[in-house]
Amino acid sequence: MSDLSIRTISAEQHAAYLAAQPSASFLQTPGWAAVKSEWKAESLGWFDPAAPNDLLGVTLVLYRQMPKVKRYLAYLPEGPVIDWDAIDLGRYLRPLAEHCLAQGAFGLRMGPPVPMRRWRAQTIKDAIAGGQQPKLGDVRPDVIEPSGATVAAQLRALGWKAPRAVEGFAAGQPQYVFQVPLAGKTEDDLLTGMNQQWRRNIKKSAKLGVEVTLGTAEDLKAFHALYVLTAERDHFTPRPLPYFQKMYEAMSTQPADCCDFRLYMAYHEGDLVASTIWVRVGGHSWYSYGASSTAKRDVRGSNAIQWRMMRDALSSGAFVYDLRGITDTLDPNDSHVGLIQFKTGTGGEAVEYVGEWDLPLNKALYTAFDLYMRRR
Q: Which residues cross the membrane (predicted)?
């Protein structure tokens, strides 16, 4: 079969295609280009030369400029949105590389939305308790997805390479995430799947009168103030308020059938105790950002707001609720293990994706950029 053709498409074409798909990452929506306005961006579509009006795949490409020269790293976060079960992925990827090279790219990075392995919550809990396997990847998975190995093999054959685990470019999107399957389930099913502590905390928050509401753009300042306090407590660098204001404007103004974006606020007796950002594209919903109060942790606002988002995802028709990234540590003495323990309490599963892959187009510039990123 001949390669597909590729060309720039409008934001409207891009959004309409995503709206017709069962699932696509919100990082691949045209609105995300506006969020990442410091990057050059374009929407691309693949077409069959024999039927030039039939759109067969789309992607958002973000171009990050190399210092001092007008050359770029072309980045496709959690994309592209193509048929990853295709017998020949080169039909998509060869024209993509040619197009990006013509745009001045010295290399490509993409994150295929293709899972490789899955671990049930109980499997993870047992591994942490056993203390014999310090990394999730060392634990025998409950499910091995054959498509993951197939895609990885094709990418290697096409010249793509997986980034180094420690060195190289700073990690982009997480390779390990935690998800709660929703398809065919009821609210009672979801509660039953949670551990006893989660069920107890949800019940406690309701008894104490925690109220969860949808926020507006005016509530972003309150969200951000709580988010900054959370960053100080949990030792991470917070994003500035304008970033979230830009995100709210860009993502919430996309067509509703393409992307659903919401801000949630949890109050207890008038005090904001938790706030989160939720996104849905097709059947995939995400918990994207979150903040919680230290002063009133005992009212369990975080559990209340997660339960509300999970129920809203279920009622919207989503088939998965995605709590996003986790580290792969299972060491009880590692501070990061608390995150996976919190998410495991939902009764879902850890999922390993194939990760982000690189294709050098200009080896000298690619190597120089790699060195620059490692020295930052």
A: none
Tokens coding 85: 């079960």
Strands laid side by side in the 357-360 sheet: 5-8, 40-48, 51-65, 72-76, 105-110, 357-360
CB within 8 Å of 284: residues ≥ 6 apart? 23, 24, 25, 318, 319, 320, 322
Taking residues 48-52, report their average pLDDT.
89
Q: What is the pLDDT of residue 169?
A: 32
Q: How far apart are CA 223 and CA 228, in angstroms?
A: 9
The length of the chain, given as a count of residues: 376
Beta-bridged to residue 179, according to DSSP, are 322, 349
Q: What is the CATH number of domain 5-111+356-375?
A: 3.40.630.30
Nearest to 71 by CA among 279, 316, 361: 361
Predicted pLDDT at 170:
44
Backbone angles phi, psi at 316, to 5 degrees: -80, -10
Specify the CATH architecture of the domain 117-145+176-353.
3-Layer(aba) Sandwich (3.40)
- CA count, 13 A, side-chain hemisphere, 176: 19
- Reply yes or no on whether the pLDDT at 256 is more than 80: no
- Type of residue numbered 297: R
HEC sequence for 343-365: HHCCCCEEEEECCCEEEECCHHH
